[in-house]
Write a structure and sequence with these properties.
With about 160 residues, the protein is an all-alpha fold. It has two helices and no strands. It has one domain. Helix 1 runs antiparallel to helix 2 (about 55-160). The longest helix is centred in the middle third of the chain and has 109 residues, at about 55-160.
Length: about 160
């Protein structure tokens, strides 16, 4: 039974790790996408840098600034989300630790109940065997008496017919 619990616990831990990784991967992809956008914009600016006028360069810099602010907002929101999920995970761990003694106590109680039930069943087996034994003896006795009665009946009939 403990092996099953260990396997179940391992599966739960792997599920938690998988859930966490499915949240981190989109976060990282978002960061890379934003950085790619910034780099692409920067490369375009650097290629056209000399040919563009100052107004266009300012617009491009404003766009880059907006992209960086959006990226920063995204990073902050992901940090908050990760922190709240971590807090929830810690709360669940604490609750698990609080409930563990109760579960262990319930397990011990159940084992004691099953042990007592097994003892009762062993006693009942002997009662059933004794009952079956005495029923067998009683049935044999009735069968013997029935055969004796039939034999006497037949002998008395034969004596009546022979007279």
């Amino acid at each position: 039974m403990t092996e099953k619990l260990k396997k179940k616990k391992k599966i739960q831990e792997l599920n938690k790790a998988l859930k966490l990784s499915t949240k981190i991967v989109p976060f990282i992809i978002g960061i890379f996408a934003s950085l790619l956008g910034v780099i692409t914009t920067y490369q375009e600016i650097s290629k056209k840098g000399e040919t563009q006028n100052i107004g266009t360069q300012i617009e491009n810099l404003d766009d880059i600034s907006k992209d960086l602010k959006n990226l920063q907002t995204f990073v902050e929101s992901q940090k908050k989300k990760l922190a709240s999920e971590n807090e929830a995970l810690e709360n669940l761990r604490k609750e698990k630790e609080n409930l563990k003694p109760l579960v262990e106590a319930d397990k011990k109680i159940l084992e004691a109940v099953f042990l007592e039930q097994e003892k009762r069943q062993q006693k009942e087996v002997w009662y059933e065997r004794a009952f079956g034994f005495f029923i067998g003896i009683f049935s044999s006795l009735i069968a013997s008496l029935l055969f004796i009665w039939i034999d006497r009946k037949r002998k008395s009939k034969v004596e009546i017919d022979s007279e």
